[in-house]
Write a structure and sequence with these properties.
By secondary structure, the chain is of the alpha+beta class. The chain folds into three domains: 71 residues, no CATH class; 94 residues, no CATH class; 103 residues, Alpha-Beta Complex (Lambda Exonuclease, Chain A). The protein is 50% helix and 17% strand. It has 13 helices and seven strands. The strands form two sheets. The chain has a five-stranded mixed sheet with strand order 1-2-3-4-5, with helices on both faces. Strands 6-7 form a two-stranded antiparallel sheet. Helix 4 packs across helix 5, helix 4 runs parallel beside helix 8 and helix 10 packs across helix 11. It is globular. The two termini are 41 Å apart. It binds iron/sulfur cluster (SF4). The site of iron/sulfur cluster has 12 residues, from helix 2, helix 12 and helix 13.
Length: 313
């Protein structure tokens, strides 16, 4: 008999920077996110698993906007590479607006559908917990919409890709894993290509929010991945570029060996910390819920997906 997918009692252990940040943020949230929600998509799972899985899927307006734009960009690039065609600015803006409106309708009129199939519908955190989208947030997203699409089409990366320069597409929007000291590490890179003329591997991060201090650990993980997956010998061959779609600017970063050593060290220490919350390392079986203390900052809780659960348990 063919087994389509394996039902595991406990999730497979893996490390990512976002997992590390969640643990630092709130250990209870870490438990809900990485353990309680496991198997919550199955019909006969516990009420806690189903609730945690459902709440994990909540998204904010900004997060949804960023993700929708990333998906659109991914499709534009994919279509361009296969057919050489580029949609008009208006078509892209209309598509983005359609997705935002659909998500709003899901959140306001399809709550029962979302409750039953949270992966297939959208629920905004703002509406789930607050009853509506704050008008200033809506206005902000409306302003960002056309600006980000225009800036994407004018971006250095897209111009490079559609110019006659020697470019080779490598990867886009895929979950990738690599082995770091025996641990499976997850990274997501928006877009990777090779500039043959300049002998560079370019990793692109599309930013749809305001500029902030770059997270060097994230960038160093990207570089580590390229070194391992594509055997890139020298860090000088790797350019990491942030494309700021709100301002139409970009910034490139290079990394040193120390940056890479530091992130490897961080990952190792973080994994050790995570192992402290396991009853059985082999199975990745967590300790009981009470061993994951709640954080004591009400501000963090107000933004958290799981506050409903925290009132119950
Ligand atoms: S509501 Fe607060 S305590 Fe509960 S998981 Fe979220 S951040 Fe942690």
């Amino acid at each position: 008999m063919i087994t389509l997918f394996e039902v595991r009692t406990y999730p497979e252990f893996s490390w990512s920077l976002s997992r590390h940040k969640t643990l630092l943020n709130c250990t209870r949230k870490y438990y809900y996110d990485y353990y309680a929600s496991h198997n919550g998509w199955l019909y006969d799972s516990s009420a806690l698993a189903k609730d945690a899985y459902r709440l994990k899927k909540l998204t904010t307006l900004e997060m949804f906007f960023g993700q929708a734009l990333h998906n659109i960009i991914h499709n534009v690039i994919k279509n361009y590479l296969s057919s050489g065609t580029i949609p008009t600015e208006k078509e892209l803006i209309d598509k983005l607006r359609y997705l935002l409106n659909l998500a709003f309708i899901d959140s306001t009129q399809r709550k029962t559908f979302w409750t039953a199939k949270p992966k297939h519908y959208t629920m905004f955190h703002e509406i789930y917990y607050g009853g509506s989208l704050p008008p200033e947030k809506v206005k902000d997203i409306q302003n960002r919409l056309a600006v980000c699409v225009t800036n994407f089409l004018k971006s250095k990366t897209f111009q490079d890709l559609t110019s006659s320069k020697q470019m080779r597409f490598i990867e886009s929007e895929r979950f990738r894993t690599m082995d770091l000291d025996g641990t499976k590490v997850f990274i997501v890179m928006d877009f990777v290509y090779r500039d043959i003329d300049n002998g560079k591997w370019i990793i692109v991060d599309w930013k749809t929010g305001k500029e902030s201090d770059d997270d060097k650990s994230q960038l160093a993980l990207y570089a580590l991945y390229l070194q391992k997956a594509y055997k890139v010998q020298s860090l000088d061959e790797i350019e990491i570029r942030n494309e700021y779609l709100l301002t139409g600017t970009n910034r490139s970063h290079s990394l040193t060996k120390q940056d890479l050593d530091r992130v490897q060290e961080l990952s190792g220490m973080s994994v050790q910390e995570m192992l402290r919350f396991l009853e059985d390392d082999e199975k990745n079986k967590p300790l009981a819920l009470q061993a994951f203390p709640k954080n004591e900052h009400p501000k963090k809780c107000s933004r958290c997906n799981f506050s409903e659960l925290c009132e119950m348990y």
